[in-house]
Structures are given as structure tokens and as C-alpha cells.
Specification:
By secondary structure, the protein is of the alpha/beta class. The protein is about 40% helix and about 10% strand. Strands 1-8-5-4-2-3 form a 6-stranded parallel beta sheet, sandwiched between helices.
């Protein structure tokens, strides 16, 4: 089956910057860059959680909490997971170690501001001195928010929410220890200082981003991934794929501006950099080798264990470099969902799984961004299986886009935004929902206009 090229997008003039070598200079037909070549940051900062990896390491959590001197622990999970082996393993460890805890199992899959507030209220009333989150990104992100606002009880909810939706205040209060136990191989939330939610009033996703909220310890126990159904494995894996691709192709950290006046104001998402590049590329290679195996064979322990690690590796990469357009555009795709309910998700509400909302725009996005740094896009395409021996550098974006389309087609992914309930009539609302996502969209290597975003959404309506 042929895989059509991405639609052409609008172009305008741009300035040239001496921080890019000549061969990476944006072509003259690109939109004007909002970033200046002066006043940018000259430093990067690496921040990750402690990570423990290995089959069965969940049994050590009770001892970890003893070592922390925890007297009153909050265990957070969701209703489905509360009946499954990962939570049982944690409960057994807490009980064996004599840990006093309360369980909150009302976390919403794809959380909202209200579900965050419900968890925050539970945390405030509980006066906990440590937290344990067992689940996917929804659970871990909810627990991060609960810990933050329980530690800062007089703060308004919007105080720490990313600007321009919230005030984006720096976190200066000390938080309680948080141990994260990921049960999906996707978000990498156990490594990052980011918590994402649906802001229902505006029908968009936003979040909180601060190094201060990253977990104290991430427990990566590959046994927990064995119970994941096929589509959850797939959609979680697509999040890993896009984390790696976006962080590797993001605006270089030395081109981000302005330079922070105080280190506490240095954003968690700094732009691509030499440290995050290592993690992003390694994660991408694991995805290329193991994702299809992990999806197709639930008994393939090697594949599922490696994808669990890839999730953390990509989390380390994007948690310090950031993501850009695929994620920025995914937030309204999730927030404006109408009736779509994905296979293998036991939920009572419509939702577009995060990894799916991200990956559906990826062919169009990377066809668009490749003009700025085609070598990186071509390298990514080769890792994902493209034969680039005779490739022309100017075709890097189209090659990566076609490689992604074939990858998604082979895994039976929905045929674009139209297949999950959107039409061209929804594009203005999708664009409107993307515009507030400046925290990530400004890290795109190629600036974008509203017209560009419209064209990207239109190009993503149908993939194959």
C-alpha cells in the first residue's frame, strides 16, 4: 500500500543564527523564528529520579519507606489496577514491613483538573509523610500533584499550572518523598517533574512542570508490564517513540531564550542537549527493536522488559530536553474527544489514549520540522528501519514521515484523526487548543503559525 507524502505547509522568511552550523541553517523559506540570537541560556541542568530496575524489586518498597522513616503513607492507584498483581505486590511489601498506609484508588485515567483536586483533597486530609504511586502516567502524575499541593496547602490550584493557563510559579516548598511504580511502558513519569491533566473549562490538556515534583525513586519492575493488554502496550509505546523523536529534534538548548535570572526558573524542558540526546537515541533503538514484539506477544518477557526500560530512558531524555509539536497538538486531540473509546481500556468515559493522540500527528509534524535539522530526522528514520543509503538530505522529513506511517500501519493504528471522530470542521478548535501549549510548542525546531498548525491537523486526518 502506498504511503502518501505529507501536505505542503506555509512558508515565510526566517533569520539565520550563528549558533547553528551552516549545514543546519533553516532554509530561507521557513517562518520567522521568535527566538533571538542573543540573551539565550548557556547552561543546561540534568535532573532525574533515582531508578531501581529488576524483576521483583517491588518487594523492597516497604523497606524503602522504613528507611525514610515514613509513618503515614498514601498509596495511589486506579480502580482497575487496584485488583491486579502490581498493586498486590506493593500491598504485600507494605504489610510485611508494617507500614501504616491509606489507599486512594479513585485516580482517573487521563486525569482532569477536578480529578487532581479530588486527589489533592485526600492528600491534605491524610497529612501523609510519604507517597507511593502504582500505575501509568495518570496515577503517577496525579500523585505528584497531590504531594505538591498538600505540601503547599495555601496555594491556589492555578499557582503552579503552566503559563499561560496558570501562573507557572516556581516550587519553593519542600515536598514529601514519592516512590513511583510504573505499570505501563510509556510516559516515563517516574523520571520526570511533569504532571499532565485535562483542563475541562478550556477543553485542553496542560500541566505542572517543575524539577521539584519528580519522584524520589522510580521502581521499574518488568513483571508489572506482563498484564498490559495489546492496545495499552501499543499506545504506551507510541508515547515512548514520540518522546524520543521530539526530544532529539527539539530546539537546541543554547537557542532557547530568555536566559533565566535565577536557576530555580530554568525550565525542566530546556531543548535538545548532549545529555538528553544519548537517552533519546538509545530509547529509539529499543523501540525499533522491541515495540512490535511487545505488542504482538504478551509472553515476550524480553521485549516487554526492554520497553519498560525504554520508557524510563526516553523519560530522562524528554524530561530534560522537552517535547514539541506532537505533544502540543495532542492535548486538544485528547481534550476535545467526542465519543471515541479505545479497545482494551476499561473506562466509563470517552478518551483518546495519550500515546495515540501524540503519534497520529507524527508523520505530518516531522515532515514539517525536518527542514531545520534534516540530519537528525534522517538518522531517526534509519533507526526505525528506513534505507537511507541513497537518500537526499532535503527529503529527510518525507522519509521519516513515510517510515512512521508504515510503522503505524503495521501495528493496525487508527487511520488518522478522522478515524477517532474528528473532521476538517474541528480544525479551528484543535488549533485553538494548541496555541496555549507554549511550554512545548516553542521547543519546535521550526516555528509555526496558526496556518501551519491548521495544515498539520489537516494532514493528520488520514494517514494511509
Amino acid at each position: 500500500m502506498p504511503f502518501p507524502r505529507a501536505l505542503p505547509l506555509s512558508q515565510s522568511r526566517t533569520q539565520r543564527c550563528p549558533l547553528f552550523p551552516e549545514e543546519l541553517q533553516p532554509p530561507s523559506g521557513l517562518p520567522s523564528a521568535p527566538l533571538l540570537c542573543a540573551g539565550q541560556t548557556k547552561a543546561l541542568q540534568m535532573a532525574i529520579s533515582n531508578i531501581r530496575y529488576g524483576e521483583g524489586v517491588t518487594k523492597e518498597i516497604g523497606m524503602d519507606l522504613q528507611n525514610l522513616g515514613a509513618k503515614r503513607v498514601c498509596l495511589m492507584t486506579d480502580r482497575n489496577l487496584s485488583q491486579l498483581p502490581p498493586v498486590d505486590a506493593v500491598l504485600n511489601s507494605l504489610t510485611t514491613s508494617g507500614i501504616n498506609f491509606q489507599m486512594y484508588d479513585n485516580v482517573r485515567v487521563e486525569p482532569t483538573d477536578q480529578s487532581f483536586l479530588d486527589a489533592i483533597e485526600f492528600a491534605k486530609k491524610g497529612e501523609f509523610d510519604a507517597y507511593v504511586a502504582v500505575g501509568g502516567g495518570s496515577v503517577i502524575d496525579t500523585c505528584k500533584a497531590a504531594n505538591l499541593y498538600a505540601s503547599s496547602p495555601t496555594s491556589d490550584f492555578l499557582d503552579y499550572v503552566n503559563a499561560p493557563i496558570g501562573k507557572g510559579k516556581a516550587v519553593t516548598v519542600p515536598l514529601k518523598p514519592l516512590i513511583a511504580v510504573p505499570t505501563t511502558a510509556g510516559t516515563g513519569s517516574e523520571t520526570t517533574g511533569v504532571a499532565i491533566f485535562d483542563f475541562k473549562e478550556l477543553k485542553v490538556k496542560t500541566g505542572i512542570a517543575s524539577r521539584a515534583i519528580k519522584p524520589t525513586l522510580g521502581i521499574i519492575d518488568p513483571l508489572h508490564t506482563l498484564s498490559m493488554p495489546e492496545r495499552i502496550v501499543a499506545n504506551s509505546g507510541f508515547d515512548v517513540l514520540c518522546h524520543a523523536l521530539e526530544s532529539y529534534t527539539a530546539l537546541p538548548y543554547k537557542m532557547r531564550s530568555p536566559c533565566p535570572s535565577n536557576p530555580i526558573n530554568r525550565p525542566a524542558y530546556q531543548g535538545s542537549n548532549p545529555i538528553s540526546d544519548v537517552w533519546a537515541l538509545h530509547a529509539l533503538r529499543i523501540v525499533a527493536k522491541y515495540l512490535k514484539r511487545a505488542i504482538r506477544n504478551p509472553e515476550d518477557r524480553e521485549a516487554r522488559a526492554n520497553m519498560h526500560l525504554a520508557s524510563a530512558f526516553a523519560g530522562i531524555g524528554f524530561g530534560n530536553a522537552g517535547v514539541h509539536l506532537c505533544h502540543g497538538m495532542s492535548y486538544p486531540i485528547s481534550g476535545l474527544v467526542k465519543t471515541y473509546k479505545p479497545k482494551d481500556y476499561n473506562v466509563d468515559h470517552s478518551l483518546v489514549p495519550h500515546g495515540l493522540s501524540v503519534v497520529l500527528t507524527s508523520p505530518a509534524v516531522f515532515a514539517f520540522t525536518a527542514q531545520v535539522n534534516p540530519e537528525r530526522h534522517l538518522e531517526a528514520a534509519e533507526i526505525l528501519g528506513a534505507d537511507i543509503r541513497t537518500a537526499r538530505i532535503k527529503d529527510a522529513g518525507l522519509i521519516l514521515a513515510d517510515t512512521l506511517r508504515k510503522f503505524l500501519f503495521d501495528l493496525n493504528v487508527d487511520d488518522g484523526l478522522a478515524a477517532i471522530g474528528y473532521s476538517k470542521a474541528d480544525i479551528p478548535a484543535l488549533v485553538k487548543g494548541t496555541l496555549p501549549q507554549e511550554r512545548v510548542t516553542k521547543l519546535s525546531p521550526r516555528p509555526q503559525t496558526e496556518e501551519d498548525l491548521s495544515a498539520l491537523f489537516e494532514a493528520s486526518m488520514k494517514l494511509y
